[in-house]
């Protein structure tokens, strides 16, 4: 699994490390770009700020988006992604520890492709990451890269 990158939007260093370890354990070798807050994620996706000049043809194959983020929360990131033609079709999996039903409903209302609650147990977390990788990176047919269709 080495095609396009995965954008992991995660502010918790422990959850970031767990996700990266789980991917490695299951040979998910896509390059993972980590954004530590919502503002950094938007800069990466739209090629602004610290990511100005980035090759915008290199879009992530998958975005794993936490909701509870500093600077710009995950729901606002999702709102901005879906409002822009360049990012509207990118697959977004909300990967969060939130148990709030309103977060679930709002994520889907804003266009999330999937909503996954982070398991607390490491073994379950690794298994969830494996299943996400298998489905979204191998089985799912991603949308074409913007500008190439």
Model description:
By secondary structure, this protein is α/β, with parallel strands linked by helices. The protein has one domain (6-139): Rossmann fold (3-Layer(aba) Sandwich), CATH 3.40.50.2300. 40% of the residues lie in helices and 14% in strands. β1 (6-9), α1 and β2 form a beta-alpha-beta unit. It is globular, with a radius of gyration of 14 Å. The mean pLDDT is 88.
Question: What's this entry about, in short?
Answer:
By secondary structure, the protein is an alpha/beta fold. It is 40% helix and 14% strand. Helix 4 links the parallel strand 4 (92-96) and strand 5.
Give the helices and strands, then pairings.
Blueprint (H helix, E strand, L loop, with lengths): L5 E4 L3 H13 L6 E4 L2 H9 L15 E4 L8 H10 L8 E5 L4 H9 L4 E4 L4 H18 L10
Parallel strand pairs: 1-2, 1-3, 3-4, 4-5
Helix pairs in contact: 1-5, 2-3
**Structural class of the helices, strands and pairings?**
alpha/beta
User: Average pLDDT value?
Assistant: 88
End-to-end span in angstroms?
Answer: 23 Å
Q: Outline the biggest β-sheet.
A: 5 strands, parallel
Strand content: 5-15%
Helicity level? 25-40%
Broad CATH class:
Alpha Beta
Name of the CATH superfamily = Response regulator
**What is the gyration radius calculated from CA atoms?**
14 Å
Q: Please provide the ordered H/E string of secondary-structure elements.
A: EHEHEHEHEH
Under CATH, the topology can be stated as Rossmann fold
- Biggest β-sheet: strands ordered side by side in the sheet: 2-1-3-4-5
């Amino acid at each position: 699994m080495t095609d396009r990158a995965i954008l992991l939007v995660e502010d918790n260093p422990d959850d970031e490390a767990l996700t990266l370890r789980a991917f490695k354990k299951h040979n998910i070798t896509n390059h993972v770009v980590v954004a530590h807050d919502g503002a950094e994620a938007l800069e990466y996706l739209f090629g602004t700020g610290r990511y100005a000049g980035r090759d915008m043809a290199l879009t992530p194959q998958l975005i794993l988006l936490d909701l509870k983020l500093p600077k710009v929360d995950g729901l606002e990131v999702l709102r901005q992604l879906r409002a822009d033609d360049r990012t509207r079709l990118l697959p977004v999996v909300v990967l969060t520890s939130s148990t709030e039903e309103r977060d679930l409903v709002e994520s889907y209302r804003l266009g999330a492709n999937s909503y996954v609650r982070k398991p607390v147990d490491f073994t379950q977390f690794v298994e969830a990451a494996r299943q996400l990788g298998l489905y979204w990176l191998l089985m799912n047919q991603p949308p074409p890269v913007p500008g190439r269709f």
